[in-house]
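Here we describe the complex-level prediction in full. Unlike the single-chain runs in Section 2.1, the two entities below were treated as one system.
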Amino acid sequence: MSFLKTVDSKFFHTEIPYKPMGKYAHFLTVRITESYPLFQTDGELNKARVRAGIKAENQAPISRLTMFKRKQSTPERLVGRELLRNYGLMTAEDCEYNVKFAMDNPDCIIYGFAIGDSGSEKSKVVVDTAFSITAFDESHETFTLNAPFENGTMASKGEAGSKPGEVTSRINQQDHIKPQVFFPSIVTLKDPTEAGFLYVLNNILRTRHYGAQTTRTGRVRNQLIGVVFADGEIISNLLWTQAIYDKLQADNKINSRDPLNEDDVIAAATSAIETLMSEEFIVHTDFIGTQFTALLNEVKTFTGGEAGIKEVLQKADAEAKAYAKKHIKQKPEADKAKVGKAGKAG
Amino acid sequence: MAIIYRCQLELHDSMYYATREIGRLYETEPVIHNYALCYALGLVDSEIYSTTVPEEHSYRYFCPEQVPKYEEHLTPLNQQGIYVTPARSLSHSSTLNTWKYANNNYHVEMEKTQKNIPSFGRAKEIAPESQFEFFIISSSSLKRQDGKWKLPKWIRLGKWMSKAEVSVQEFTDIKLKTGEFTVAYPLNPLDVMFTNQVISYDVVNMPPVSLIQNVQIRGEYYQFDDIKIPARMEYRFSG
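The structure predicted for the assembly as a whole is:
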């Protein structure tokens, strides 16, 4: 049974293959910050110094904010896992992210896992570091964080043995990414089945928070602008971002004081990817613009209703179980013990 | 006569693999191993290059064990006369990144690690827009019938599978000479020492086979466009 009418079934496998078969689905998304997310290591926001654009006049390097790949794929994975648990296809006991993988559900098979001597499944979802279109200095803000007393002030009233009137030192500074910062990002799915394709697309559409979770401020919206089916890898996030920068710069749409206009960015992102894809020499079928709208609307009819999403998840789950049974055979207990001993002896 | 392709790589993302592990710091050397390049370029187990390997050694999404099969995978490349040299950096910079595993519990308590798997660390990575260069020596053309490259334009490298752009330049006017010369590029010692006499070198420590650079060498070599690289290199796994 197939779900989609807008997409030719030749782009999908009927079952999950055990070898790479050269079918790729690339999801083209622009990730838009809607609050103040935090992508950092060591107390500093992640950034990279790269060329501003591709054109000769935009070759000077700028510092861009970066969204590291796993910081994009992990929240999306977790959304999918949440759904699988909600519809009773996975239990928290059987499969816990990065702790214990059950190895037979859509999350494990599509996004991969690695468990010491039980083997590893390579991820079929590949995400690359995303770069902000605008420069770092225009795209972040420094916040002062404090932890006030019960009365709402920073001055002690003598709580817990402190000296009354003393000002607390519970104060800190932290850089945050501003709202309306744009991160063009391509999510690549290798060798999809139709249910697997819908599973990953649904995860991207539903994920609303990225970055440090404890801050509760990392709201990010994925504005999907298309899907490209191809027989290989397509252009990088960096090149796409630089092409968008060139277009916006040429149209005088980059004003360092104001955030970028979303409509301008989407228009530039769409035309940039169309130009870049026309220069690629692989076989590809693009769903961009109105063609993509039709596909997206069709997808939403499945993922927007309980019966539809359940059907998609069940199909994806059945495919994962069939794959696990066929290709990931559990070692018998006796065998496992032998391997353990041999390992020690060796 | 062989055809030599000079390939340039431009990173479009930060690239990481552990050349050295210093406690929790994992460092990436700006040299790309030739084994890694063979896999990244799609030369291994490929119908396009007639390098398919027996089913039991073929690449799969699920790996039951973490044992590399370089010999099984690279020997077909020797049979097809395809050799890839390690890549050196033309220009690069590095960045430090901290990584840790995410946890999706609502309540988190620090537990003692039961497994010997690091849960966090710092990785010294090669920054985007760094450039590398390497050679492919091939006995047959790497162009398709329609004149386009068989080689992919976009490849993925390193532990994070970082995207890199490949550009290729073909050399056909190559002279085969014999003598003593210095190689300006890193080499895989196993692949060169059985056919050429290696006189002096510096070691670039790198698993699984450490590479050598600044190599003084005697034997047959290809010369083209002021570049000298040893001839008759092929993948060797035992003497």
